[in-house]
């Protein structure tokens, strides 16, 4: 969707979205809105008839029964109006909740389609923030247009006809009230169109500092709550300054236009007073028109200054949502990786968004099918970035990665698995924590227990009282595991998934060296005949690898087996000797 399309275009596109997702509820809302608009006109008509009947009763031109019937008709019209007002407003709330579910689902789908590298780009994060903010406003922006057509326009048209039948000049009163409000709205649209774009990054920064200030662990430990609060208040002050300028301009315009409208309102009241004195309209018509003009003024101010005015301020946010969900990536269906193919990197280079420095440079090597490759190097050497490229999470800035003869971007990750250092701690049962890596099949309890044993997960009454059915995490009154225990759960999750290719990115970082050695021996057995990439800082464990790559400054400094690299007396041997001293 083209950005900057305006209120009308964005509302129409939003209505199409709502019609597609909630057809029945939207049509029912239109019916309620139309009947609500009719009900206000019926009030005016039956009010006139009642007062005219009372006047005729005083003049003995009609019977008391006729006046009572007119009274009950007026009461019924008022009751019908109040009922429709409640039904219309209530159903609008229900519709907004139903649409909110659909907008959130679309955001989740769109986020799922995004390349992982996009989450490293601050502009893309602002884009997501704008879309989430816009999803909240979409339904009310669209309902503003629909209510304007089916409620306000219905009321104005029927009232215009009614006033014209009484006195043609009175129908002009609608325009006298409408034009100043319309002019003020156009000015506000221009004022607020860019406000959402400017405020999105500041709002995201505010949310971040607020979350930091609310952290009850490190933030409180270091006593820096006030520091983050000051950052939060500073961002909030900047955000409020932008909003204040826009609101000030809006208020000045409203004051000028409302002054003109009030003058027109006074002229209209004087006109109907003169018409009554001249007996050109009845007293009942005067009472009805007096009430209707006030309501016309109120409704016109409501629809233009409040409803459309609010929508004009938030249309940019709704537009961001529509643009975000429409801006999807074309993803290939992919081919299943069979595990019987080499993985080849040809001239691969990579840099992160908004960075001038390449994180990886001039990578040319091949991972043979069924081979175990170890990647080692100091922090910041590019190990994790390389793993994300191999898994297809990132796309090379230059060069290409081939799975056999097929570009990696055209290969699905169906038979791939990974164990990360920054693993997720799902607040679910141990069984679900592990089985979540293979949701296509029913959980196999026996297999899960076997994998738990290989991963070093110890079942006892204190930590796992209900075995694999034990709930993990205090949030749901479950068992809280240590960092090492959680890491074992992550390891079990990774090897439970069927795979031909697996990446182990620092999978044992918080596990003691002796246990790590045992786990790597298990990995060798489990990964037999499969392609595996292991990233670790502990060089004592990489002896199991068929080949070792030493990364430095984003490039391959050395490669070979453990024995070959030790003979070279280079970077690998330097790191190995340094670590050896730790254990002496």
What topology emerges from the helices and strands here?
Elements: H1 7-21, H2 23-58, H3 64-113, H4 122-166, H5 168-192, H6 195-213, H7 218-222, H8 225-277, H9 283-326, E1 343-350, E2 360-367, E3 372-377, H10 383-390, E4 398-403, E5 406-407, E6 416-419, H11 430-435, H12 445-454, H13 483-496, E7 501-505, H14 513-526, E8 531-535, E9 547-552, E10 555-560, H15 562-568, H16 571-582
Parallel strand pairs: 3-8, 3-9, 6-7, 7-8
Antiparallel strand pairs: 1-2, 1-4, 4-5, 9-10
Explain this structure to me?
The protein starts with 6 loop residues before the first helix and ends with a helix. It is an alpha/beta fold and 584 residues long. Helix 1 packs across helix 9, helix 2 runs antiparallel to helix 9 and helix 12 packs across helix 13. Strands 6-7-8-3-9-10 form a six-stranded mixed β-sheet, sandwiched between helices. It has a four-stranded antiparallel β-sheet with strand order 2-1-4-5, covered by helices on one side. Helix content is 62%, strand content 10%. The protein folds into three domains: 320 residues, ABC transporter type 1, transmembrane domain (ABC transporter transmembrane region fold, Up-down Bundle), CATH 1.20.1560.10; 129 residues, Rossmann fold (3-Layer(aba) Sandwich), CATH 3.40.50.300; 83 residues, no CATH class.
């Amino acid at each position: 969707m083209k950005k900057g399309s305006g209120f009308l275009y964005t509302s129409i596109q939003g209505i199409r979205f709502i019609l597609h997702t909630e057809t029945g509820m939207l049509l029912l809302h239109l019916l309620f809105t139309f009947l609500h608009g009719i009900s206000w006109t019926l009030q005016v008509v039956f009010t006139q008839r009642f007062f005219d009947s009372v006047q005729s009763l005083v003049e003995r031109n009609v019977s008391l029964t006729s006046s009572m019937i007119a009274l009950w008709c007026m009461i019924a019209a008022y009751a019908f109006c109040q009922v429709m007002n409640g039904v219309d407003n209530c159903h609008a709330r229900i519709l907004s909740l139903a649409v909110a579910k659909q907008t959130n689902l679309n955001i989740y789908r769109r986020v799922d389609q995004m390349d992982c590298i996009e989450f490293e780009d601050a502009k893309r994060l602002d884009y997501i923030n704008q879309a989430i903010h816009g999803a909240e406003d979409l339904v009310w922006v669209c309902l503003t247009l629909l209510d304007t057509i089916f409620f306000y326009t219905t009321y104005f048209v029927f009232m215009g006809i009614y006033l014209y039948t009484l006195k043609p000049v009175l129908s002009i009163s609608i325009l006298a009230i409408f034009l100043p409000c319309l002019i003020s709205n156009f000015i506000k649209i221009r004022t607020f169109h860019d406000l959402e774009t400017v405020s999105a990054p500041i709002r995201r920064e505010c949310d971040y500092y607020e979350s930091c200030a609310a952290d009850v662990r490190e933030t409180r430990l270091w006593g820096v709550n006030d520091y983050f609060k000051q950052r939060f208040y500073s961002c909030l002050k900047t955000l409020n300054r932008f909003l204040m300028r826009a609101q000030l301009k809006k208020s000045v315009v409203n004051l000028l236009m409302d002054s003109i409208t009030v003058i027109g309102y006074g002229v209209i009241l004087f006109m109907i007073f003169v018409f009554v004195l001249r007996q050109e309209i009845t007293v009942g018509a005067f009472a009805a028109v007096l009430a209707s003009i006030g309501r016309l003024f109120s409704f016109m101010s409501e629809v233009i200054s409040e409803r459309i005015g609010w929508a004009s301020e938030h249309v940019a946010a709704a537009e961001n949502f529509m643009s975000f969900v429409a801006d999807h990536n074309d993803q290939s269906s992919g081919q299943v990786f069979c595990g019987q193919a080499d993985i080849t990197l040809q001239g691969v280079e990579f840099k992160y968004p908004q960075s001038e420095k390449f994180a990886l440079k001039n990578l040319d090597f091949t991972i043979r099918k069924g081979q175990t490759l170890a990647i080692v190097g100091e922090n910041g050497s590019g190990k994790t970035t390389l793993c994300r490229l191999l898994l297809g999470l990132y796309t090379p800035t230059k060069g290409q990665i081939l799975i056999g003869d097929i570009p990696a971007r055209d290969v699905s990750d169906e038979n791939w698995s990974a164990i990360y250092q920054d693993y997720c701690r799902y607040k679910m049962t141990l069984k679900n924590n592990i089985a979540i890596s293979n949701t296509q099949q029913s959980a196999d309890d026996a297999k899960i227990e076997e994998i738990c044993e290989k991963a070093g997960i110890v079942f006892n009454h204190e930590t796992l009282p209900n075995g694999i059915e034990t709930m993990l995490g205090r949030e749901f009154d479950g068992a809280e595991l240590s960092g090492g225990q959680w890491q074992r759960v992550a390891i079990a999750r990774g090897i439970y998934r069927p795979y031909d290719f697996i990446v182990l990115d620092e999978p044992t970082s918080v596990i003691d060296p002796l246990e790590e050695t045992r786990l790597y021996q298990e990995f060798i057995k489990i990964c037999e005949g499969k392609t595996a990439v292991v990233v670790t800082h502990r060089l004592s464990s990489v002896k199991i690898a068929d080949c070792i790559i030493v990364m430095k400054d984003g490039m391959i400094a050395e490669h070979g087996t453990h024995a070959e690299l030790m003979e070279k007396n280079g970077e690998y041997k330097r790191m190995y000797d340094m670590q050896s001293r730790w254990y002496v």
